[in-house]
Amino acid sequence: MPAAGGIGPGNGKEYPGNLTPFVTITCIVAAMGGLIFGYDIGISGGVTTMTPFLQKFFREVWEKKEANKSTNQYCQYDSQTLTMFTSSLYLAALLASLVASTVTRKLGRRLSMLFGGLLFFAGALINGFAKAVWMLIVGRLLLGFGIGFANQSVPLYLSEMAPYKYRGALNIGFQLSITVGILIANVLNYFFAKIKGGWGWRLSLGGAMVPALIITVGSLVLPDTPNSMIERGRTEEARAKLKKIRGVDDVDEEFRDLVSASDASKLVEHPWRNLLQRKYRPHLTMAILIPFFQQLTGINVIMFYAPVLFNTIGFGDDASLMSAVITGVVNVAATLVSIYGVDKWGRRFLFLEGGVQMLICQAVVAACIGAKFGTNGNPGDLPKWYAIVVVLFICIYVAGFAWSWGPLGWLVPSEIFPLEIRSAAQSINVSVNMMFTFLVAQVFLTMLCHLKFGLFMFFAFFVVIMSIFVYYFLPETKGIPIEEMNQVWKSHWYWSRFMEDLDYPINGNSEMSKGGQGPKLV
């Protein structure tokens, strides 16, 4: 791994540029796109523990919970309709991200964010006024379309705007927004659940209009990225914008490389088909495996269903929502650690450290739940110290995720793709993420019912696999300009075999030049 402090690529390129107030504010506003995703993750888990909400829409779940027909705590929330309510959003996001690829490429990153905000707003409005389950599910589908557009465009926007030395920290603003959204949702659920008359859930669901407005207004005031302007033929405008973003007049070398990358991308008529070419094998592998592994850390299970999980472990409704707030605070704090460390310590260090931390915590939580609940799911009386131990280790687990796989699962894919396949590859990244989020959400409650405490060991197994994968196959991308990223594949022990010189002629552009082997990255 290269030393701290940011390195240029192997051919020695280091573009001049500062972290200007303009680019900082721009990236903060754009990163707010993560709020809609985070708010939704937090709100849906909390709302599904609110008694009035269950009575109105999911009576069978409420009856099972109240009558306590089964003392088996593992199975009290096992309902396909309830699961469909939660996971329909991710199916919609998967479909939207495929369409969003074309919008992002042809119309720019900002318009994709705008569509995301408007669709999310419409979904929140329908959910807030929902009278029947079908309205809830239509609202969730619209929310999903909004998230598909936002998650496609925001990480790309951030990676293209940020100076390469600070790209990690600025890009993780997206994940920070997701964690802040989750925390806000958990706090609101806690207070809205106390409203007399049982209509607090409407405020929880309708409240999603606020983050939707933030991203909608934000997308109208943000500038386009120079990469996107060049891609759409606005070359001189892009040069002026690059000078403003970098805070220096000497942007000629970076500008030439962006233009060369754009020219190369215009020769690509079918970016989707091109992804299958041999030279894009490493990019395609990362676009699929990183989001796949991110979902199989088990984090969404904790965050979606933290209130349900804590309720199951034996906390009351109120206490379980409060515990979800605690995990939300940990999530935000640990993401700040990632922002501080990602450009200092590198991506690989955070991935590997987070993996070890999550593995230990999953083993401890599985042992704790297994010891008390056994296989019949009837814990008897749970002592206070026991509940505190479970929450403590879940919090350490959340921290491990929030400074590793959480932010880096979005950052690394968005910074490794060459311009000619960037939108298509980012779509695959978001689609795979949403597909596995959907599958995990769809089967989690059933798996909890059948695998019981073994569910945590199921996810722990994948944490081991993903850590091995990172150790051997993911090169360090810290401090390397986004249009020079092919260098890391060229000097990698395994991926270099896919990067023939004939694919990357010496022309000083985004494609790799022969000069220098670059840092040894594994």
Question: What features would you describe in this structure?
Answer:
This protein has a single domain (21-224, 268-498), classed as Growth Hormone, Chain: A. The protein contains 23 helices and no strands. The protein has helices spanning 21-31, 34-47, 51-57, 59-67, 80-107, 109-128, 133-161, 167-192, 200-206, 209-221, 226-231, 235-246, 252-266, 271-274, 281-295, 299-313, 317-345, 347-373, 384-402, 405-416, 419-451, 454-473, 486-490. The chain starts with 20 loop residues before the first helix and ends in a 32-residue tail after the last helix. Residues 1-12 and 505-522 have low confidence and may be disordered. GO terms for molecular function: monosaccharide transmembrane transporter activity; symporter activity. It is a multi-pass membrane protein.
Task: Give me a quick take on this structure.
This protein is an all-alpha fold and 522 residues long. It has helices at 21-31, 34-47, 51-57, 59-67, 80-107, 109-128, 133-161, 167-192, 200-206, 209-221, 226-231, 235-246, 252-266, 271-274, 281-295, 299-313, 317-345, 347-373, 384-402, 405-416, 419-451, 454-473, 486-490.
